[in-house]
């Protein structure tokens, strides 16, 4: 791969070059890293929107409807990153859904990328960040990141986003509410999708009362964001315009309050930390004599040495 | 704190010394690390049993009943580590439950420790490992680790255990089943608790059919463990003896198949890796000139340099 040429092609909007670049970035190859470095100055422009929710809430349809809305009304380029193995974008859902998504995928202003949920989940957050960075550099102004809301890995991925939508649907039980309490804390906007189904008022009320507890005393404070609760029926395109408006209000809030820059800085700092750590471990491994690790490990497994002692012994090889 | 004296007192079975030691270990102080090192040779004896399940499955009652059963029938010392914020052991549940648990806590052969779910969840798995290690060194032969089954953090904690029980209850919906698919993969024994409630056959059948898909073709293979599905009513002490027997069968399977040693080795190797990484970052930070980090970070935030370039620049300070 001619890396400078690929970087230029990605900047020009060449979709094939972007697809090839993303594969390098996903596999964390030297070429992928160099591409990211070359294009880094171009990035930082996109509005990153996380969309998370349990299976069955219809969040893929919502991502689809939002992407189509942005294309129709604002002519911005839209990227979609699906990190959900059950998403139709990754091929996990019903054929009807996949056909609908494919309409979107034929629009040259939309780029859809689905991530394989392979290996360590912490690593998935890291890879997703790199994929989003490349799309951002390629000029995608809105990037929707879809995850299934079920754990720490999703929380890590969602931390990438400037604005996080948490999608609920009527009729979810009490148990699931308890499990998802952690997910609610990261919501900037709450959406009750499938709002034509029975129980929508109950779900809305439960969400409102959780929000009231959390944001009590901040009503009317312009420096404090209280997540709105919106209704939608994504399959019929209802409620999408109001949702897009709420997303825009949140973007303006972030920029006015300085929170946009703070999130940007925290993200870059976190990424730097991970990279430094990786490079340190790599340099240490290269400097380590071949038998030293094996010997120390054997002493540890036979409990002749403790983990702390073993770590200190191993470190001595690189600090001479 | 006199560390060698505390270590000796912990080995002698002094509960107060253990409690104080655990506080040091939980806070990851130098004293805590030294204690762990001093006592490391004593460990590796305990059977670590993970107990995980959604809120409402009654897993705390089950932990309670199991601990009481082991005390009554085998006279072993039992440790309980509760990593679940909704557990009565951590004070999160109804008063009636807490009173029942307190009976257990007055038994001098039982030691209960609840973990605060503070900070990063990855860190919680690490701290839990250290707490379990100290209890193990203090001579607790069975250690029950209770977590709420809701994500990657719990999976990480459960990886500590030799034997993992996944607790279900009748009447959980389809949504929750989808979310917990990942949790099922780590189950060594499945328990349908609250087996006096309606729907117990449905839950059992759903679990059995998931197990059949996963273990198809391995029936009768003595080198392959197929998780049994058991019923219990923990609040009435029903099904506890059969559960304890299944746990013992699993322990024998682990030891005969060599899996016990493999899990032990994988755990120690993982711990060593984390400690080496920590020490490397620490040594690098100490060697870094004061302004270097700040300057590099500013260049990164203004996008004059990329994260990879910034990391390499920073590494140069320690590789001269």
Written overview of the protein:
2 copies of one chain form a homodimer. Chain A is globular. A 7-stranded parallel beta sheet of chain A has the order 3-2-4-1-5-6-7, sandwiched between helices. Chain A is of the alpha/beta class and 320 residues long. In chain A, helix 1 packs across helix 2. Chain A has helices spanning 3-12, 15-26, 30-39, 59-74, 95-105, 121-137, 152-158, 174-179, 181-184, 200-215, 240-257, 259-287, 290-301, 307-315, and strands at 47-53, 78-82, 110-114, 142-148, 163-168, 189-192, 229-231. In chain A, 55% of the residues lie in helices and 12% in strands. Chain A has 3 domains: 1-42, no CATH class; 45-257, P-loop containing nucleotide triphosphate hydrolases (Rossmann fold), CATH 3.40.50.300; 273-318, no CATH class. In chain A, helix 5 (95-105) links the parallel strand 2 (78-82) and strand 3. Chains A and B meet through helix 3, helix 8, helix 12, helix 13 and helix 14 of A and helix 3, helix 8, helix 12, helix 13 and helix 14 of B.
Give a nutshell description of this structure.
2 copies of one chain form a homodimer. Chain A contains 14 helices and 7 strands.
């Amino acid at each position: 791969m001619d890396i400078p040429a690929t970087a230029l092609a990605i900047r020009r909007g060449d979709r094939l070059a972007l697809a090839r670049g993303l594969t390098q970035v996903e596999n964390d190859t030297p070429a992928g890293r160099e591409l990211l470095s070359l294009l880094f100055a171009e990035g930082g422009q996109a509005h990153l929107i996380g969309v998370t929710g349990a299976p069955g809430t219809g969040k893929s349809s919502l991502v689809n409807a939002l992407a189509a809305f942005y294309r129709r009304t604002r002519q911005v380029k839209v990227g979609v990153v699906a990190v959900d193995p059950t998403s139709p974008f990754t091929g996990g859902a019903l054929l009807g859904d996949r056909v609908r998504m494919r309409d979107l995928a034929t629009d040259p202003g939309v780029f859809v990328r689905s991530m394989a949920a392979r290996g360590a989940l912490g690593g998935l957050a890291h890879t997703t960040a790199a994929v989003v960075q490349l799309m951002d550099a390629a000029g995608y102004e809105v990037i929707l990141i879809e995850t299934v809301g079920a754990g720490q890995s999703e929380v890590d991925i969602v931390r990438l986003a400037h604005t996080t939508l948490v999608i609920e649907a009527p009729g979810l039980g009490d148990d699931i509410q308890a499990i998802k309490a952690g997910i609610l804390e990261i919501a900037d906007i709450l959406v009750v999708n499938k709002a034509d189904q029975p129980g929508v008022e109950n779900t809305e009320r439960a969400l409102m009362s959780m929000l009231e507890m959390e944001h009590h005393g901040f009503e009317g404070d312009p420096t404090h964001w209280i997540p709105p609760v919106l209704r939608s029926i994504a399959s019929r395109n209802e409620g999408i315009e109001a949702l897009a408006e709420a997303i825009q209000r949140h973007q303006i809030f972030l920029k006015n309050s300085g929170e946009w820059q703070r999130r940007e800085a925290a993200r870059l700092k976190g990424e730097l930390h991970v990279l430094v750590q990786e490079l340190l471990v790599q340099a240490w491994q290269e400097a380590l004599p071949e038998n030293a690790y094996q010997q120390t490990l054997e002493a540890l497994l036979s409990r002749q040495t403790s983990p702390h002692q073993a770590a200190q012994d191993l470190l001595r090889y690189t600090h001479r």
